[in-house]
Write a structure and sequence with these properties.
about 0% helix, rod-shaped, mainly beta, three-stranded antiparallel β-sheet, about 150 residues
Length: about 150
């Protein structure tokens, strides 16, 4: 953090993550040296915000016939930005219009299985996975092309 002059009685911490608990300490320094840190402040939680981090490494996994298995790395708690965190899994056969969207309400989920008896094996799908919480919808991952199971 920036150095604050000795006559200041407060300072503002900036660029903190939403919905994270923080403690603060003060350390005094002068030309003689640096003192011990103060006792930590009480724990302070920042306000909720719409998530800004989509899941990483969206890919396909093996599954049963007529299944499309979509997998991703879950978003860590520090980037969920609030309560009610979950995923929006969007997919469509490659080259078609209109996304099918399914909600996955578990914040630690890492896959979604779509089963459709009419989907032939190895059908390519465009897939993206987004995030949401109680404050709103966040971004989607880049679109990936994955195939339905054999």
């Amino acid at each position: 953090p920036d150095v604050i002059s000795g006559d200041m009685e407060s300072a503002m911490a900036v660029e903190l993550n939403p919905w994270v608990e923080y403690e603060f300490r003060v350390v005094a320094t002068n030309k003689i040296g640096t003192g011990d840190p103060s006792v930590p402040s009480r724990v302070i939680r920042t306000n909720e915000a719409v998530p800004k981090t989509p899941p990483a490494n969206v890919s396909g996994r093996s599954g049963r016939r007529h299944e499309l298995v979509i997998a991703w790395e879950p978003v860590s708690e520090e980037f969920q930005n609030g309560d009610g965190f979950g995923y929006i899994v969007a997919f469509r056969p490659n080259g078609t219009r209109g996304w099918k969207e399914k909600m996955v309400t578990s914040s630690d989920a890492s896959k979604f299985i779509y089963r459709d008896e009419s989907v032939p094996p190895l059908t390519p799908f465009e897939v993206k996975v987004g995030v949401y919480n109680n404050k709103g919808d966040g971004p989607f991952s880049p679109i990936m092309v994955i195939c339905s199971a054999e």
